[in-house]
């Protein structure tokens, strides 16, 4: 076949040699871009607009940052207050449960046994040891005398009937009482009392269970959250009584007083309020939350001065950016006025060069497309010629076999192998993509050809064949490197089945399947014939067919095996898909 040489002639209108810089190639249109005589006035107007816009942006950024700083501050105080409320709720809820537990211990032991029973004292000590915030656990009888406490054993006689946490529980239904800070009569240390009324089954007053909480525990916890920052936290009873405040006084004085303003101040939509503290006279942004099921509020605040300072610091940063930016803008405008003509001229030259480049790329693309088409045509012609040459070789072998009957079996095997190669090249010649082999079509054509060779010659078309062939092949594509060994393996296995599986004119059924399993192709040939003797597959005694199968499988980097099909034989080939 005569193949015309590629036409690499330069298209009309495109110069063979590179044009000089700034000169478009002949026949290529160049966009006309007029030079700007002067850009002074437009750039000056742009400069003025830019300066005004810079000031507006600065003002907007300052206002927006002011809003965001206050929104962030509100979110912060609300979030921190929620965390502090959860902490206080857990602490006081746990100790409310502890008070109920102490009441049950008293009911079980009775007042006569409590004072001299060390086991009762040990149980109270277990409560005290489990909670680091506890200074002590106290059990007071109905007359106000402390019967047991966890600070001393045996417990000395101590009258606390004058304490507010005892007097508050004389009234029925008083519930949990949280008192202001007191100083311990045994330890001399400040503590927060939390007490509960104990009563008999008929509702009579039966004494008080009281826990002493250490204020320094709460102070340490709050300082760990915001050490060194201008923030404050308060625990306030619902009647305004101050229980605890951080920052605390530097001395050991008790924190007391009543400040109902923290409870009564109205809140905004975010749940915050601004109040000048009646304690230290500092204006702060506060948020408050009530501890569920307890007469207790948690209040948290940050100074408005610190919020304003944060905004002012960022505004100064904006100003420090805006002023140099304006100066830089004026400098850029001055440079732009001087360079405007050069930029316009450079743009024109770039457009011309781009036009030349596009023309050359289009010309090169045409050459590549033409070369690709010629390559595909050459490959198709090669496959066609190989197929024709194989047919010639096949005809010569058939002639040789007819002239020498003794060589007919050997030449017949060689003939079938050549025919298998011919079928593969025929499919490649017909394929739309010469680089991809439709393996399912090759398998189908080859299996039918082998069936015709062994059963079709000399058999009337309307006569049923003694061995039926069933094909179940999935669409599967591979390259030429893998398709050749697979085709030759199928030729050996299927020809062997037709020749040896059904001796003496026996009938049966042969099946060929092809499928994909993950990244592997699986070819299976199954017959229901007499089976394969083990001796044929022992090492050192393989037939030529098995040697070829082994060689082709190694070439594929795959694996194969023969299995007893009971009846018949099953051959399985696994090979990677490239």
Automatic annotation (TrEMBL):
CDD domains: PDC1_DGC_like (cd12914), PDC2_DGC_like (cd12915). The chain crosses the membrane at residues 43-63, 317-337. Its EC number is 2.7.13.3. Residues 381-578 form the Histidine kinase domain. It is an enzyme of class 2 (transferase). Keywords: ATP-binding, Kinase, Membrane, Nucleotide-binding, Phosphoprotein, Transferase, Transmembrane, Transmembrane helix. This is histidine kinase. It comes from Nitrospirillum amazonense.
